[in-house]
Amino acid sequence: MLGLYPEVQAKAAEEVDHLVEMEGADISDLTVENLKSLKYLECVLKEVQRIYPTAPFIGRELSEDTKISKCCGVTHKKMFFNVINVMKQLYTV
């Protein structure tokens, strides 16, 4: 995903390089505590997970009949949402 956005990739790499310089260690020597300080990289990872979730479907059991939109009502007790399509629709409106 980062390869599609070279400016984001460069900024994330710069943040990691800066941390390695500050710690004066090899990148493989960084600790979990060090990694928690990488705020930009954390935001990038969360955004990628939002757009491409590891669990692309969410199942729900409905307690009552539900109207989803103007044209569709759900009368079944179980429903599955495709999270990827929902997120794409939110950002193409």
Rg over CA atoms: 20 Å
Main sheet record: 2 strands, antiparallel
Low-confidence runs of at least 5 consecutive residues: none
- Assess the beta-strand content as a share of residues: 15-25%
Helix proportion range: 40-55%
How many structural units, i.e. domains?
Answer: 2
Number of strands: 4
What is the H/E order?
Answer: HHHEEEEH
How many H/I helical runs?
4
Helix- and strand-based class? alpha+beta
Shape: elongated
Average pLDDT value? 80
**What is the oligomer described by this structure?**
single chain
Distance between the termini: 23 Å
Strand order of the largest sheet: 1-4
Q: Can you characterise this structure?
A:
It is elongated and about 60 Å long. The chain folds into two domains: 2-51; 57-90, no CATH class. It is built from four helices and four strands. The longest helix is centred in the first third of the chain and has 18 residues, at 6-23. It has helices spanning 6-23, 32-35, 39-51, 83-90; strands at residues 57-61, 66-67, 73-74, 78-82. 46% of the residues lie in helices and 15% in strands. The protein is of the alpha+beta class.
Short description:
The chain has 93 residues and is an alpha+beta fold. The chain contains four helices and four strands.
